[in-house]
Amino acid sequence: MWPTGCFPGDCPSDLHPVSSPARHSWWKFLTESPSQSDHAGHRMTDSPTPFTNQALARYGVEVTIPSPLTASELGVDTTPVAYETVGAVAYVTLNRPDYRNAQNSVMTYSLDAAFVRAVNDADVKVIVLRAAGKHFSAGHDIGTPERDFHVEYPNTATLYWDHTDRTGGDQRLAREVEVYMGMCRRWREIPKPVIAQVHGACIAGGMMLAWICDFIVASDDAFFSDPVARMGIPGVEYFAHAFVLGPRRAKEILFTGQRFGAKEALDWGMVNHVVPRDELAAKVDEIAGNIAEMPQLGLALCKRPSTSVKTRWACETRWTRSSAGTTSHTAPMPKHPRVTPWAAWTPSR
Question: Could you count the other beta carbons within 10 Å of the beta carbon of residue 73?
Answer without folding.
Answer: 13
